[in-house]
TrEMBL record:
Keywords: RNA-binding
SUPFAM superfamilies in the cross-refs: Alpha-L RNA-binding motif (SSF55174)
Pfam families documented for this protein: S4_2
Record Gene3D superfamilies: RNA-binding S4 domain (3.10.290.10)
Organism: Acetivibrio saccincola
Superkingdom of the organism of origin: Bacteria
The keyword Oxidoreductase is assigned to this record: no
Protein name: Ribosome-associated protein
Signal sequence bounds: none
Length: 69
């Protein structure tokens, strides 16, 4: 699992995918999310604007990321 540090209270899921380099564009983020390829805390997440906060775990393609402060 890779820890990802954020400096703000939250980051939106679409922004997060770009921040960690999974997606190059917002359109690519949207496609990954709408194709049910992204899980947040073990549940498939279909909202690009889902607010991720410290402690949340994001899964995609066998990789896991944890939001830390």
């Amino acid at each position: 699992m890779k820890d990802v540090r954020i400096e703000t209270e939250y980051i939106k899921l679409g922004q997060f995918l770009k921040w960690v380099g999974i997606a190059d564009t917002g359109a690519e983020s949207k496609e990954l999310i709408t194709e049910s390829k992204v899980k947040v805390n073990g549940q498939v997440e279909l909202r690009r604007g889902k607010k991720l906060r410290k402690g949340d775990i994001i899964e995609l393609g066998g990789n896991k990321y944890r939001i830390v402060d």
